[in-house]
Design a protein that fits this description.
293 residues, Beta-galactosidase, Chain A, domain 5, 42% strand, binds 6-O-phosphono-beta-D-glucopyranose
Length: 293
């Protein structure tokens, strides 16, 4: 299918009725629904589906930078580009295709690539929907250059929630983190699961490969599994910042939380010919069925 700017979208479905929709604009997952047709990813009602900016919501691919520390655009350029479907993707290790529907997307540098990041790369993303409705996004970055390059990476993931003040995030307690709201000051998170009552923008370092977001009101738990992505960025703009964003509703911060599997603190360096893989897998399960990570 196409969106109203004529940009292609791919829809994945499983036999139970779950679905995922991916836009070639940014390789962004813009919808993920369970078998009851309920949307699991947040998208803003004010989202702008127009180049060159990424739509506010879903899962956007942030490469070659996550955040805004260099002269590159915030969260990198990959999410703002038009990707292609890769019919000839090389085999992906440890990916069992049985029962899955999936699509392979590709981004390569174009002629107008930023002078500040003049590297030869291939970024491949496979989005897959499994029989149980789980969504996986697997990215591969390959250096096709004669020289090494470094990058950071993140899956900017907007989870749809009933009420942020009722949400618990488990798996990040006692970790070291950098607080983007305080000049990246480093501190250690205390004891219990994270709860939310004000703006948050933190990078949790060396996190476990499985974390969980519990939505009590909906009795739903998001289980987030990741590989190759040591950090987790947690973001909610809260009231004041929401009002300052043109593509975000004033009250919408209550219905979302970004929990982003990422490699931020230590950039990844690839020598010529080398490849890096970063995997994210999301499950949305009834809270009563949720086993701990
Ligand atoms: C978070 C960052 O991941 O994304 C925040 O840590 C940022 O600093 C937020 O404000 C939203 O970013 P953007 O570029 O999608 O508006």
């Amino acid at each position: 299918t196409k969106d109203w700017n004529g940009i292609d979208q791919v829809v994945l479905r499983n036999p139970q009725g779950a679905s995922a929709r991916i836009s070639l604009h940014g390789g962004q997952v813009i919808s993920w629904r369970n078998d009851l047709g309920l949307e699991l990813l947040f998208s803003s009602s004010k989202a702008i589906f127009k180049s060159p900016k990424a739509m506010r919501g879903g899962i956007s691919i942030c490469f070659p930078q996550f955040g805004s520390c260099s002269s590159l655009e915030q969260q990198g350029f990959a999410r703002n580009k038009i990707w292609t479907i890769d019919d000839d993707a090389p085999p992906l290790l440890n990916f069992d295709i049985r029962g899955k529907s999936f699509v392979d997307l590709l981004l390569k540098p174009g002629d107008e690539e930023p002078k500040c990041w003049p590297h030869g790369f291939e970024l491949r993303v496979r989005v897959s929907l499994a029989l149980d409705g789980n969504l996986a996004v697997i990215s591969r970055v390959r250096n096709i250059n004669g020289k090494p390059f470094s990058f950071s990476f993140g899956y900017h993931t907007y989870l749809s929630l009933s009420d942020i003040s009722e949400v618990r995030l488990e798996g990040l307690e006692t970790l070291d983190c950098l607080d983007n709201l305080c000049q990246r000051e480093r501190f250690t998170e205390q004891g219990d699961a994270l709860t939310f009552e004000s703006e948050v923008d933190r990078v949790y370092l060396s996190s476990p490969n499985c974390i969980a977001v519990l939505d009590h009101e909906r009795k739903r738990t998001y289980v987030i599994r990741k590989e190759g992505l040591p950090d987790v960025v947690v973001w909610n703009p809260w009231e004041k910042k929401s009002k300052a964003m043109a593509d975000f509703g004033d009250e919408e911060y209550k219905q979302m939380l970004c929990v982003d599997g990422a490699a931020v603190e230590k950039p990844i360096t690839l020598k010529p010919g080398e490849e890096w893989t970063g995997r994210l897998e999301l499950a949305a399960v009834p809270s009563s069925f949720c086993s701990d990570c």
